[in-house]
Amino acid sequence: MFDQEDGELNVVMGVLFGIIALVIAFVIGLGVFKMRSAAPSAPVVAAAPAGAEFAEVEEVGEALAKVYFGLGQTELPADAAASIATVVAALQAEPGKRALLSGYHDETGGAAINAEVAKNRAVSVRSALVAAGIPAERVLMRRPAVTLGGGDAAEARRVEICLQRFEHHEIPVPG
């Protein structure tokens, strides 16, 4: 009689532990699902202005010009006029090329804020080139990049301008 009761007790305990294990697994799974859906997969960066595009291509060659910005600044600095003029002259001399702007930022501060500042710096340079008569479709931007600046803090707060010939298969992806 006791053997039968022990067997029944073992079955009941096994079922009870199985249910408890399923409930724990469900709670853990639900927690992981909520964490994944709440956490953004990439830093949130505001969309580029109308007509601005992010080119998904690598830079080729050295930068034609570099524009350096102050800490946290996104407005075009006064000494940028010479760099803008150099790029405008080069683009007018080579109608088959486009300007590729690369905004950089250092590792200090929040990643999303730094990316936004770097993007806005590139937008400032882009606006200056368009205001100087360069068609907007000839001025492309790469997504912001982190740099250590080679030990010089100003190097991390720059926009590099390269001239590149884009092939037909290198289609810029809208930002």
Would you write up a description of this structure?
- The chain has helices spanning 2-38, 81-93, 111-131, 153-156; strands at 53-54, 65-68, 98-105, 139-141, 145-146, 158-164, 173-174.
- With 175 residues, the chain is of the alpha/beta class.
- Strands 2, 3, 4, 5 and 6 form a five-stranded mixed β-sheet that branches. A two-stranded antiparallel ribbon has the order 1-7.
- Helix 3 links the parallel strand 3 (98-105) and strand 4.
What descriptors fit this protein?
disordered C terminus, 16% strand, two-stranded antiparallel ribbon, 7 strands, five-stranded mixed β-sheet, 175 residues, alpha/beta
What secondary-structure arrangement, pairings included, does this model have?
Elements (H helix, E strand, L loop, with lengths): L1 H37 L14 E2 L10 E4 L12 H13 L4 E8 L5 H21 L7 E3 L3 E2 L6 H4 L1 E7 L8 E2 L1
Parallel strand pairs: 3-4, 3-5
Antiparallel strand pairs: 1-7, 2-6, 3-6
Mean pLDDT: 78
Q: What is the number of beta strands?
A: 7
Oligomer: single chain
Helix and strand succession? Answer: HEEHEHEEHEE
In the predicted model, the low-confidence regions spanning at least 5 consecutive residues are 39-51, 168-175
Shape: rod-shaped
